[in-house]
Amino acid sequence: MEYIKEVFAQYNNQCIRVYQAYNPIIAKEAVALQTFGERFHINRMTWIKPSFLWLMYRSNWGTKKNQECILALDIHRRMFNELLEKAVLTSPDSTSYTRAQWEKAFDETMVYCQWDPDRNINGNAINRAAIQIGLKGTILKDFLDGGISHIEDLTPLVRKWNEQRKNGKLNLKNLPIEKIYPITDKAIRKRLDMK
């Protein structure tokens, strides 16, 4: 199946919302500090995901171990756009590179892009891709120091929505409304294999 490769997200003129799942210790600290604290592993890669339902699929609606808390991070669009400018696909799908060029770019980057099938409320794949962006090193530090506008704990809402979903009573209008995020730079679109 050919997936639509666009960034679907909730955003406004200043920020774009991405999601992450953590254990309660990391999540509570992040909400209190409005960034990630000493319990967060700065030396590991972290992945941000604009698709709410993809994260629900990945975390099983916040029921997987160490993914019990669902955080929404509103990040500055200038930071998100900078990440897209630096991102390299995790596999050589792009027509921008030869294999050797991709390997070099992959080894040198600190921002990774991966496309996975997006999901519906029951975890079934739909005909569009969900982007994940992985950050490490100095880019991750920059992201933590100045990229985040606000962190919100969605865990109580996610639990409520999951119960409604399991009982067949979830109103989809209550979930985050995501639309195509504008990415017009042709070089970025080519490098990230966006048709």
Task: Describe the overall structure.
Helix content is 34%, strand content 26%. With 195 residues, the chain is an alpha+beta fold. Strands 3-7-6-5 form a four-stranded mixed β-sheet. A three-stranded antiparallel β-sheet has the order 2-4-8. A two-stranded antiparallel sheet has the order 1-9. Helix 3 (77-86) runs antiparallel to helix 5 (137-147). The protein is globular and about 50 Å long. It starts with 7 loop residues before the first strand and ends with a helix.
Runs in which pLDDT lies below 50 for 5 or more consecutive residues are none
Helix-strand sequence: EEHEHEHEHEEHEHEH
Total strands: the figure is: 9
Helical fraction: 25-40%
Average residue-wise pLDDT: 94
State the separation between the terminal residues, measured CA to CA: 14 Å
Number of helices: 7
Question: Which radius of gyration do the C-alpha atoms yield?
Answer: 17 Å
Structural class: alpha+beta
Proportion of β residues? 25-35%
Provide the spatial order of strands within the biggest beta sheet. 3-7-6-5
The major sheet is characterized as: 4 strands, mixed
* Gross geometry: globular
